[in-house]
Amino acid sequence: MCQVGHLDPSSHQRVLMKTGLILLIIGHLNFITGALVHGIVLRFVVNPQDATSLLYAVANTASVISALLTISCGIAVLMLSRYLAPTALKWLVFTLSTSSCLGCLSCLLGMAISIGLTLGSQGRALLAPCSLTNAALTPVSRECPFDPTRVYSSTLSLWAVSLLLDSVEIIFSIRCLLLTSDLLQLGCCCRGAHRRKVSLQAAPADSPDLGQCLGLLRLNSVESAQL
Fold first, then answer.
1. What count of other Cβ atoms lies within 10 Å of the Cβ of residue 24?
2. What is the pLDDT of residues 164-187, one digit of tens each?
3. pLDDT reported for residue 218
4. Which residue pairs from 206-209 have beta carbons closer than 8 angstroms and sit at least 24 positions apart in sequence?
5. Global pTM value
6. How far is 29 from 21, CA to CA, in rounded Å?
7. How far apart are CA 117 and CA 209, in angstroms?
8. In 42-139, which residue ranges form alpha helices assigned H by DSSP?
9. How many Å apart are CA 125 and CA 206, to the nearest integer?
10. Is 27 exposed, middle or buried (0-12, 13-18, 19+ CB in 10 A)?
11. Which of 32, 122, 188, 226 would disulfide-bridge 4, Cβ 3.0–4.6 Å?
């Protein structure tokens, strides 16, 4: 690693601590939201023959996994805010923040598709166990494992909350990624390597010593040919 520039350890510790706490809280909230969706609705709805219900299950499972990654990233960031020296811990936070960001992005797309399909089909997959067509007009039945008059709006509300939490997780995961890159000084190394590459490419055209040497070689070759 290059050792260019100077980092203020106290400022990085404060920012990392706040970022780690936010990631920890948001990760737990997203995990609880995913568990509620699974416990209230999806455990009754998932059908291997129905592609829409399988999409719901995959999106919700991915949301729970990304929440666990965010919680792990928050714990690692809190540890890094206490101990800035270990390089292995910095790389661990860098890897976890990258994984959390990518996982939350995939969950964001999955939740958006789930909400769009549910609104487009009027909750057909959600109400499949009850064999109902209108959730607002049908009363609670003994054959239905949940209240069909509330499952449609409740599920959409929980998915909207999960969508918002995934967006916040992406923002703070990217912030954590940038902070760790600053601690690892990856940007300084990239800029230094780019400068060295540019200087090496420009050296043959701009170096007067090399030009003089080439001129002398041509002159000697011409004189030898004349002789």
1. 18
2. 999 999 999 999 899 888 888 875
3. 59
4. none
5. 0.69
6. 12
7. 70
8. 43-45, 51-82, 87-121
9. 70
10. buried
11. 188
